[in-house]
Amino acid sequence: MEITTLFAEQKWNIIKSLSKDKFSPLQLAERSDTTIANISQQLRLLEAAELVKKEKIKNRERGKPRTLFSLSNDYVFLVSAMKNFAKKRLLVLSDYHKVILRILFLENTDLHYYLAKFYWKIEEYLDSIKAIIVLPDGNEIKVVIVADKAKEIERKISPVEIKKPNKESKSIKIRGITQDELVKLVKQGKHPFSSVEDLQVIYDPEGIISDLEKQGGNS
């Protein structure tokens, strides 16, 4: 099957749903406002392409789903349309790819270069960092780092000065907070944490921001 067809509207809606959680065919049909037969057909195609996988639930509670579907891996579908390089590729993502991809999806393209270099400068601390949230602010880029020893990391590396080859530079100022502090700020609805969904997250390997969003943020 042509890769492009795997991301047509109905299949894409399924993929978006499964990026958030595991779902049964019935649950996916209800979320997509379509029939189970249609969802089942789309799931078979996605499963054949190894984009999704299913699991049978043993000893399930009465009324609970027998089968749940989830994404089989973390992928990106790349399409390059530039001079001398027109390519399409489905790529399995490494942790590095995931961070760079999140950076590239930030609407402010001026941030991409600075944040990509910032990632390499803090690479040695990544094992102890739970999340990185970007807060653009004029010529200065503010970054919130969520970690158990957040203040220690903040003292060691903030601020970070990033220069482009043309000598243009930006300062990246770091604010360190713990996960408990993040949860408290979200519950209080304090800016910029009043909307979890709108946070510009470039690193969240454990899905703590996603979990806060599922829990309803500050609702």
**General shape:** globular
Parts with pLDDT < 50 across at least 5 consecutive residues: none
Number of helices: 8
Q: Write down how many β-strands occur, each being a DSSP E stretch of 2 or more residues.
A: 9
**Sheet bearing the most strands, described?**
5 strands, mixed
* CATH architecture designation of the largest domain: 2-Layer Sandwich
CATH top level assignment of the largest domain: Alpha Beta
Which structural class do the helices and strands define? alpha+beta
Percent of residues in β-strands: 25-35%
Gyration radius (Cα, Å) is 20 Å
Q: What's the order of the H and E elements?
A: HHHEEEEHHEEHEEHEH
> The CATH topology of the largest domain, please?
Beta Polymerase, domain 2
- Percent in helix: 25-40%
**What's the number of domains?**
2
- How far apart, in Å, are the first and last alpha carbons? 43 Å
The average pLDDT value, as a whole number, equals 91
Major sheet: order of its strands?
A: 7-8-6-5-9
